[in-house]
Amino acid sequence: VLALCVGFRRLGDYNATAGAAGPAITRWPSDAKLHRDVVRATLVIALHPQCACSQASVAELARVVARAGRPLQVYALAVIPDGVNEAEWEKTALIRHAAEIPGVQLVIDHGGTEARRFGAQTSGLASLYAPDGRLLFRGGITGSRGHAGDNSGEDALLAALKGKPPEVGQSPVFGCALFAEAAPGQDLRIQLSPRGNGGAK
Amino acid sequence: MSAIEVNLARPADSVPANVTARGRELFESHLQSQRRRTDQLFTLLLIVQWIAGIVVALVISPRAWQGAISHPHIHLYAALFLGGAIIALPVGLGICAPGQTATRYIITIGQILFSSLLIHLMGGRIETHFHVFGSLAFLAAYRDWRVLVVASLLVGIDHFARGIFWPQSVYGVLTGAQWRWLEHVGWVAFEDVFLILLIQQSLHEMRGIADRQAELEQAKAQVEAANSAKSAFVANVSHEIRTPLSAIMGYTDLLALTEPGPDDYADFLRTVRRNSEHMLSILNDVLDMSKVEAGRMTIESVPCSPIEVVQEVANLMRPRTQEKGLELRVVAEPSVPSRIVTDATRLRQVLMNLTSNAIKFTDTGGVELHLRTEAAGGGREALAVDVIDTGIGLSSEQLGRLFNAFTQADDSTTRRFGGTGLGLAISKRLAELMGGTIKAQSTAGLGSRFTLWLPLTPDTLPHPDVSEPALPATAVAMAPG
After folding, report:
1. Which of A129, B110, B222, B316 makes an SS bond possible with B90, Cβ 3.0 to 4.6 Å?
2. How far is A31 from chain B (nearest CA, A)?
């Protein structure tokens, strides 16, 4: 019984432990190679091609695109670390699934240069920018590590897309570290704004 | 009522107690066997699930990454070790103690915990939640609604606790999920209701099948006993016929091959005659029984005097009682009607058999034929003729099979007293054909009382125009043996 309690506790802790949030880039990076849409909102999601947890983020991304209710520019950044078999990493199941989502533009980001410009350190980080370059939302769109389904991050992103003040402006990101030097993550649940008091940060 | 219910349902009071007890025993045995098999199936399932969990972890989340660096994913460890810990005790019990109550409940808990692990390993996919519903359906194979309650309680407690302490993990929201566990548990309960109904129906059918099996077992035993009794009967009859036949052949040889004197000549012929009559009596019994069993025995209904019939029987039997030094008494109470409507020949045959048996099994004391009337319920009366002896008596076990055809009290009775064992069976059938019955009471070593009842209904009582007054005397005859 003790082994089961410890096992489920550790599994639960792992699933609830968010990755490094990284610095919030509150305006569209001036040196970004990605093209910001000046008419529609632009969503940038950084993905580690081998991250099993990010399958849930891609699944939620598909739901967000389907439920956005307005035109949206979406970039999926496939962050390929240096020193790996790039051809293999560019064709993982995760990257293929992301590319298959209608309206999603896949961008191979060798070395993660572009991802760093958006402050991404954890796979699954989604950043939503307004046509004027303001950051509307930043965070993960899954409820826990590798778990698809309703979650507050996705709700906040959809609210921001519809022009409403999001209930949670920054949600924890559950996924693999994009870079080897990324600091260990911390549980960001305690940092989340309670319902109704949140706003874009 | 369904066809199954029609086939299986039977009033409990129409089934003998020993068959009911055997039915219960078979039901418990079948249920236990079913639960043992289910334990073994779950043991196999748990092992398969464990392997499947490892495969799922290897396929979906083999490694966790940090840039280009990776290490085995925690899901792999969870599938291997946590999964192993979940199934260890249930599998151990399933192998070592299948069918035990504790095994059933431990397996139930293990199965639901494995659902939780699989949901984790599959990334919380909604489809994986169907594993819970599938598990509940499989758990119903135990035919024990309590295991469903335990499983559902586990699901309810898990969702309730998560709703309170970590709603986002299961409901995807941060707040306002305190009551959503009710919705989730409600769907589980929805399935439980139908599964429990099916369990109850299944148990009902299992009980019915066990009862039928118990009845078939008893019927088989009866058929085998009857077959055995008939074999013994054939042997008895053969023996009974061979003895007088041997005597007849012996004496006819003496008549043919020697020159006996006049006295011997007459004595030999009487012996041949007596043995022939004995053989005829045996064959008559066999024929009577065959007629009764074939339903071809006919009963006449003519007025007769029961007292006269009893007196005739006593007169015919008196030489035998005198030979054994027994007292033979005939007593008739004043209430006995002077005439009844029945088959006098068959009545005489029945009383002859009862009295003959009484004399045969009595060595000291006497035999009494006692006529009386008795209330038969519903305002009616019955004529009762008791044949009371002071003979060897019968045990309760012997009494139980006394009226079965081809069966005597036991084999030693046949060896000691002879006879085919048909007499009482024929007598009882004849009594029933006359609308009455025969019952026996006995105490081993003290004697027996066989009572023939014949109903005194308007059909059996003669019409007033032809009736005669009853005899005033109480004692009709009291003759020493």
Report:
1. B110
2. 23
